Amino acid sequence: MLKAIRATDRILFLSILTLVIGGLFIFLSASLGLLAGNGAQFSDVALGQIVLGLGGGTVALLIAMTLPYRLWRRVALFGFVASLILTLAVFVPHFGVELNGAHRWLRVGPITFQPSELLKITYILYLATWLSNAKSTISDPRRGLIPFSIITGLAGLALLIQPDTDTFLVIVAAGGAMFVTAGAKLRDLALIVLVGAIGLGILITMRPYLAARVTTFMHPENDPRGNSYQIQQSLLAVGAGEIFGRGFGQSIQKFGKLPEPISDSIFSVFAEEFGFVGSLVLILAFLTFAMRGLWVAARSPDLFGGLLAVGIVVLVIFQSFLNIGAMLALLPLSGLPLVFISHGGSALLVALGSVGILLSVSRSVRT
Q1: What single-letter DSSP state applies at residue 312?
Q2: Integer distance in angstroms from the first to the last C-alpha of the chain?
Q3: What is the DSSP letter of 136?
Q4: 99 in helix, strand or coil?
Q5: CA distance 305 to 137
Q6: pTM given for the model
Q7: Least confident interval from 90-99, 117-126, 175-184, 252-261
């Protein structure tokens, strides 16, 4: 195991370690806000994050890092189909969990998890497998664009009916980056962007909560006690942090004022406690992970490894920056958690397993 760790890219490994350890402390501090309501809830949330997320995720990372990444080609199709079935199983009575009109969770005994987290990485694995096999024909729309659209459409359909538009946008971004990396023509990319923009516009008109997000983004000063409440409280928290922050554990907004302080709004809690300087350090840590991950992708010994690296990096970075941008009112609210940091034991487990695959690719890079 130690030999495998030493063989990974050191900068990439340290960037992941920094985000995970730092994320744990940020999460624990944000979780203190739960004590104002229910201390038992704090214990349950912290235990799930540490045991399932950090503990199980560390095991997943070490296993994925040690295994040769090419082994995933053999199970990619099975994993993708199985995760699609699990994602659709959220509609099964007594198995799926509904919350605020959304069907996104499965309950197995005492454990509740989102199968969409598993769908994200299995989509990347299968798409990398297919694209690496279709390299010579990717410019032909019948063998490139159409199959890509079908694969992405299947994942998208399973997510949009939940509804989970945010996760769908994340996998489209990752899949699109992989499609371009595999050699797709700009014509195909332009068509994907055009169709995607039209589809997103239709979704916004059909789903009131999406329309409300866009309206809130355009006019955050409106309805400060309703749709704009979260962004108003988030900006208050960020502004209160000033340059160096109030100090670890000293956030005021997390005590009943800031909605979802351990998930969607956790960056705002961090910014209040560590200020502009701390926020900049966190963003630089994500950027270091991204740049080193893409460095690994560019030096992978084969296309499959390179595509895996690109997909995993975009999954992590696109989702994380959507979260940060939303909390700073630079983007519409998304409801996406901050990777490695926000509450979600199963999400952290899958995220660590995913970067374990990336570290496995880094063991084979050409230096």
Answers
A1: H
A2: 22
A3: G
A4: strand
A5: 19
A6: 0.92
A7: 90-99
